[in-house]
Every structure is written in structure tokens, then in C-alpha cells.
UniProtKB/TrEMBL annotation:
Belongs to the TFIIF beta subunit family. The lineage of its organism: Eukaryota, Metazoa, Ecdysozoa, Arthropoda, Chelicerata. CDD domains: TFIIF_beta (cd07980). It is found in: Nucleus. One of its GO terms (biological process) is transcription initiation at RNA polymerase II promoter. One of its GO terms (molecular function) is DNA binding. This is General transcription factor IIF subunit 2. Keywords: DNA-binding, Nucleus, Transcription, Transcription regulation. The keyword Amino-acid biosynthesis does not apply. Its main location: nucleus. SUPFAM superfamilies: Rap30/74 interaction domains, Winged helix' DNA-binding domain. Residues 183-246 form the TFIIF beta subunit HTH domain. Residues 14-122 form the TFIIF beta subunit N-terminal domain. GO terms for cellular component: transcription factor TFIIF complex.
């Protein structure tokens, strides 16, 4: 008996966008009812470059969605008391050498092709004061200890800890085989940078490369968004946060 499944290709010619969104957005989308408005796009053209500028604004329904469960709040690392950003921008990437499509399947295993990907991008929060406040609070939560001392009244079985888990070994071997550093998610790199600038005001590129363990070209892209590069003394060849992202104490300016 054949196990083949019919594929509905009526929408094969329809163009769709493939966009990666932050985890705090996807968690709220998963809780919505069908046909709920999740946000609105505004597409304009930059007067100087002539390139399209795509802005995305989350709906009030999404902003008010409660995801304050132990599992979601830990994985997303978003503080419950801080509202998520409402304004985002789309960073568009090239898909000339890729062929991508979107498929759907209902409860009856009915498979349909929903369209062909014509645009690929990443939804990024706009780095304003509100977003920086959220990131600082996320870093603070991430730095809190996750383990506590617990008193027990009976003996328990002791297990020898594993120095290196299999997944870690495989990841290290893959990095060595590729002969290059692997890019982490942009939010992960920004978290590491903000945590570093909490300790010192100025860093050279070599130290930031060691801290983040990222490829230099990728690291520079992120640094240019949130930092200034000092070309003159007394901090020549050093990076520091842009004024709108700084929140050191007064005495830290001499570091």
C-alpha cells in the first residue's frame, strides 16, 4: 500500500517573507487565537540611499500578552516587570542563491504549499533607551545564581560529574574542523558586550574578541551599532559605548 500524500500547490506562485523574530515575540504569537492582528508593517524608501526601510510595530494585543510562566521567563530571560519593545526594524538579507518554500499541515495530515520565499530578513528591536533598559535588566537576571544550598535529612546517591558532555565535545570538534569561529546570535553577543562594559569603560578590539569569541568582522558590525571608536589619545584604538547606552557609576569613568 502506498504511503504517498497529496500536495496542494494552488498557492505555489504566491510570494511570502521569511523573517526571524526575537523569542519574546514568538512566545506571544504562539498564545494568540487565529486571525489575531500581531502587528503592522510600514515600508518607506530612504531619501539618501534609495533603499527600502521596513519598520514593524507590535499590536497592543501582543504587548499585553502574559507569558510569565517559569519556563518561558527563564528561556527568554525577559523580566516580567519590563514591557517588551513595540518598535522593530527588518534587516533584509540576500536569497539569490537559495530556494525556499513554506508548507502547512492540518490535523488531517493535509499538506499544502503556502508560497515561495521572495524575501528573507531578521526582525530587530530598535536600540533606543527603552530597549537598552530591557537588556540591562536581562543581564542582571542572567547574572543571578540559579543554584541554592538545600539541607537534606538523608543520604543520597552521589554521581561523578562529567567534565565535558558529549554535546560540548562535538561542538568543539566541529569548530576545530571548520577552522573558524562560529557566530552566536546577535542578542547573545550584545549581552556579553554590555556585561563587559559594566566592568570597564574602554576596551580594545582584541580584548572584546577574546570576551565574545566572535569573528572580528561580525563583532565590528555589532560594535559600530552601540559603540564609538576612539582614534585619538588618551584612549586611542579603544571602543566605548555610545552616550545613549552608558549607565556607569560616576567613579567608573576612570577605569
Amino acid at each position: 500500500m502506498s504511503n504517498s500524500v497529496d500536495l496542494d500547490c494552488n498557492n505555489a506562485g504566491r510570494g511570502v517573507w521569511l523573517v526571524k523574530v526575537p523569542k519574546y515575540i514568538s512566545q506571544r504569537w504562539e498564545k494568540q487565537k487565529p486571525m489575531t492582528e500581531v502587528g503592522r508593517l510600514k515600508i518607506t524608501t530612504d531619501a539618501k540611499t534609495g533603499k527600502p526601510e521596513i519598520l514593524f510595530n507590535l499590536s497592543e494585543e501582543i504587548l499585553k500578552t502574559d507569558t510569565s510562566t517559569p519556563a518561558s521567563s527563564t528561556s527568554a530571560n525577559v523580566p516580567k516587570a519590563t514591557q517588551i519593545p513595540s518598535d522593530h526594524k527588518f534587516a533584509i538579507s540576500d536569497i539569490q542563491h537559495q530556494t525556499l518554500a513554506v508548507f502547512s499541515q492540518d490535523d488531517n495530515k493535509y499538506l499544502a504549499m503556502e508560497g515561495t520565499v521572495v524575501q528573507k530578513g531578521e526582525c530587530q528591536p530598535i536600540a533606543n533607551a527603552h530597549y537598552m533598559k530591557l537588556k540591562r535588566e536581562s543581564i542582571r537576571i542572567a547574572s543571578q545564581p540559579t543554584k541554592v544550598v538545600q539541607k537534606i535529612d538523608r543520604a543520597v546517591n552521589n554521581f561523578k560529574p562529567i567534565n565535558a558532555h558529549r554535546s560540548e565535545i562535538e561542538n568543539d570538534m566541529r569548530k576545530k574542523a571548520e577552522g573558524k569561529k562560529m557566530r552566536d546570535d546577535k542578542d547573545v553577543v550584545m549581552n556579553a558586550l554590555f556585561a563587559a562594559f559594566e566592568k570597564h569603560q574602554y576596551y580594545n578590539l582584541k580584548d572584546l574578541e577574546r570576551i565574545t569569541k566572535q569573528p572580528v568582522p561580525y563583532l565590528k558590525e555589532i560594535l559600530k551599532e552601540i559603540c564609538h571608536y576612539n582614534a585619538k589619545n588618551p584612549h586611542k584604538n579603544m571602543w566605548e559605548l555610545k552616550p545613549q547606552f552608558r549607565h556607569y557609576k560616576k567613579e567608573s569613568s576612570n577605569n
